[in-house]
Amino acid sequence: MNSFVISTSSFDTGNNPAIQRLLQQGFQVITNPHKRKLTEDEIIELLSGGATGLIAGIEPLTGRVLQSAPNLKVISRCGAGMDSVDLAAAKNHGIQVLNTPEAPAQAVAELTLGYILSLLRQIGTIDRAVRNGEWPRTQGRLLAAQTVGVIGLGHIGRRVARLCQAFEATVIAHDPFATQVPGGATLVPLEQLLATADIITLHTPYSADTHHLLNAKAFAAMKPEAIVINAARGGLVDESALADALKSGKVSAAALDVFEQEPYQGALLEFSNITLTSHVGSLARESRQRMEIEAAENLVQGLIKAGLIKNG
């Protein structure tokens, strides 16, 4: 019997037409029993039944994993990032790799804007103080008065730029591969962005070239009281260097939705001037529904192309 694996921690199979189509054609679905990001060994185990398709989360789909799954023909990422997939190994094994870059973009962009507004007005800090019986008269800052530096102008970065412009902020951006720049935004070298932006937000893919893009040297180059946001990939930020920058006051506040090791248990938990969320960037109901439907449709189209199901 043909089977496919859904490795994401949650997935609504019941309201997904493409999944129902596969089930009607006799496919068996194997879901993630752990309800969290899988390890390399755990995804190998899930694929060991001979699955031909995979709707993937952010588990490591390494050469070792792909080598262990000789029947696998299609990987459909439920999301945009491809850094968790060994694309060269997939090509060598004849595995199609697809993703859903547009579906989560609005959700991540809106979360980023939420971070920016919350940190500028210190909403979380004030909330905690009020609950402790205090009544602080905390003075925040206007987004309209800030220069926002957007690193990466893909599907998400362009949206963040436009949202910030709607609040009348000045937007500068860095992306060596940018083909589209939101009207009114200015492309600048990374060094200039770090030195002039009040708020720096990351929306670039993770790779060996972007590992610890924001490191001790980058934090040292920033303006005093800079705000740093990462809702992209954990490896983009040197978390130890960020802790040092928060401690010294060089970075006044930060927000992270992604970490090098998840669930996160590191030193940043000790700081009150950082907002930490549990990789929920794409988890807006409407975006998640669209992402799951697109991922399943991609899987079906990939299986058609591989000759494993008939079109129509």
TrEMBL record:
Query: Is NAD given among the entry's keywords?
Result: yes
Q: Name one Pfam family in it.
A: 2-Hacid_dh_C
Q: Where is the signal peptide?
A: none
Q: Name one GO molecular function term.
A: NAD binding
Q: The D-isomer specific 2-hydroxyacid dehydrogenase catalytic domain covers which part of the protein? A: 17-303
Listed under GO biological process in this entry are: amino acid biosynthetic process
Keyword annotations for this protein, in alphabetical order, are:
Amino-acid biosynthesis, NAD, Oxidoreductase
Enumerate the Gene3D superfamilies for this protein.
NAD(P)-binding Rossmann-like Domain
InterPro entries hit by this protein: D-2-hydroxyacid_DH, D-isomer_2_OHA_DH_cat_dom, D-isomer_DH_CS, D-isomer_DH_CS1, D-isomer_DH_NAD-bd, NAD(P)-bd_dom_sf
In terms of CDD domains, this protein maps to: PGDH_like_2
Boundaries of every D-isomer specific 2-hydroxyacid dehydrogenase NAD-binding domain copy = 113-281
Going by the entry's taxonomy, the superkingdom of the source organism is recorded as: Bacteria
- Please give the family membership noted in the entry: Belongs to the D-isomer specific 2-hydroxyacid dehydrogenase family.
Task: State the name under which the record lists this protein.
Answer: D-3-phosphoglycerate dehydrogenase
Natural source organism: Nitrosomonas oligotropha
